[in-house]
Specification:
heterodimer; B: 119 residues; mainly beta; 11 strands
Chain lengths: 108, 119
């Protein structure tokens, strides 16, 4: 079973700044089956990134994913007001399809 | 319109049973793997269970094995989660979620069904 640890737990930034969120896996993730999701209060999560770096349909190009092996990163190049939310990484290669504990991105 | 419509909120007793349903529209369940993901109040996301497009393969997180059963009725294009032996820590918002094609992750989410387990 792969356990995902996200850091930091909370990230406080201002609009226009760059955000870097980390997701570390307890063992190597085959085929980079790591996804990233955004969740806003009262809403279902939304898929941002699949296979570590492929943006989902309709996701702005300020969102980018990278990484391989055990270390993965979600970057947001220039924060917009609507980007302040909770972000989760997930391993979805083989069950159990565990999620990280989440990183809350809030306005500084 | 492509969407997942879930049943309304449910109240169950400890040790009791509930069944969640999720109706798919705009696509056919037998073409996609499907999942249930839950979120306890104020907490993060927890994957619960998955079923393959054919229905032949199912998976469960350890805490629900032997208590929950995922299934689907392709003729009604509906996904189910039978929840038996309910516990207080099963209280959560349960999402019905579609697995995408071609290495795409969980690409479509229902609106969620609130399950409360309380005596």
């Amino acid at each position: 079973e792969i356990v995902l640890t996200q850091s930091p737990d909370t990230l406080s930034l201002s609009p226009g700044e760059r955000a870097t969120l980390s997701c570390r896996a307890s063992q190597r993730v085959t085929s980079s089956y790591i996804a990233w999701y955004q969740q806003k209060p009262g809403q279902a999560p939304r898929l941002l990134i699949s296979v570590a770096s492929i943006r989902a349909t309709g996701i702005p190009d300020r969102f980018s994913g990278s990484g391989s092996g055990t270390d993965f990163t979600l970057s947001i190049s220039r924060l917009e007001p609507e980007d302040f939310a909770v972000y989760y990484c997930q391993h979805y290669g083989n069950a159990p399809y565990n999620f990280g504990q989440g990183t809350k991105l809030d306005i500084k | 319109e492509v969407q997942l419509l879930q049943s309304g909120g449910l109240l169950g007793r400890p040790g009791g049973s509930l069944r969640l349903s999720c109706a798919a529209s705009g696509f056919t369940l037998n073409s996609y793997a499907m999942n249930w993901v839950r979120q306890a109040p104020g907490k993060g996301l927890e994957w619960v269970s998955s079923i393959s497009g054919t229905g032949a393969t199912t998976y469960y997180t350890d805490s629900v094995k032997g208590r929950f059963t995922i299934s689907k009725d392709d003729s009604k294009n509906t996904l189910f989660l039978q929840m038996d032996g309910l516990r207080a820590d099963d209280t959560a918002l349960y999402y019905c979620v579609r697995n995408g094609y071609n290495h795409v992750a969980f690409d479509m989410w229902g609106q969620g069904t609130m399950v409360t387990v309380s005596s």
